[in-house]
Design brief:
With about 80 residues, this protein is an alpha+beta fold. Helices cover about 30% and strands about 10% of the residues. The chain has one helix and two strands, in the order ββα.
């Protein structure tokens, strides 16, 4: 579910169907596939309404090699 502010000050709630839980492969593969699907759903909403999005915590708690905490994941 996602809620967006409308130009007139009201809000629009969108309820999407549940994500399909992968039933094939290993547990780790299923977790990775479900996480990827959830990430795509959130990414689509952010792209549709970027002005209404804010991230309040560090999503990725580990750093990539060569990255510092201040710029991990940013280009």
């Amino acid at each position: 579910a996602f809620i967006h502010r409308r130009p007139d000050g009201r809000h629009l709630a969108q309820i999407h169907p549940p994500l399909a839980v992968p039933g094939t492969g290993s547990r780790e593969t299923s977790i990775a596939e479900l996480t990827a699907a959830a990430t795509v759903a959130v990414e689509n909403q952010v792209r549709a309404h970027p002005e209404q999005w804010v991230w309040m915590h560090r999503r990725w708690r580990t750093e990539m090699v060569g990255e510092s905490a201040g710029n991990a994941g940013h280009q």
